[in-house]
Amino acid sequence: MNEFGGYLFRLREASGLSLREAGAKIGISNTYLHQIEKGTRNPPRHEVLERLADAYGVSRAAVSEAAREPTQPPPCVHVWRFMYRDGQDALFHCEKCLKMGKRPLP
After folding, report:
1. Do 44 and 7 share a structural domain?
2. Fewer CB near the last or first residue (10 Å), C or N of the chain?
3. What is the pTM (predicted TM-score) of this model?
4. What separation in angstroms does the CA of 11 have from each of 7, 36, 92, 106?
5. pLDDT tens digit sequence for 10-44
6. H or E stretch including 33?
């Protein structure tokens, strides 16, 4: 479950609606709603987001904000491990990725 899907799931549970009831109220299939909640589908288009907000009794802005893609770039996965002769080791991250703003892996 992704962050947005979990958010929708909690809203639906708080409103006391089943998947079928929520889907009918929103105008989408319960299968599609379930896929959104589980994170196997991307957030829906704007019109559906508005209907979700109305059905769950929350602001449209809150649902739209929750559906936004994270703006932080993915982590740099180009990491090399280097072992020094004295037994210490260090991780080196790809300079190109760092220049593009990608954060290094922890």
Report:
1. yes
2. C
3. 0.63
4. 6, 13, 43, 33
5. 999 999 999 999 999 999 999 999 999 998 988 89
6. helix 30-38
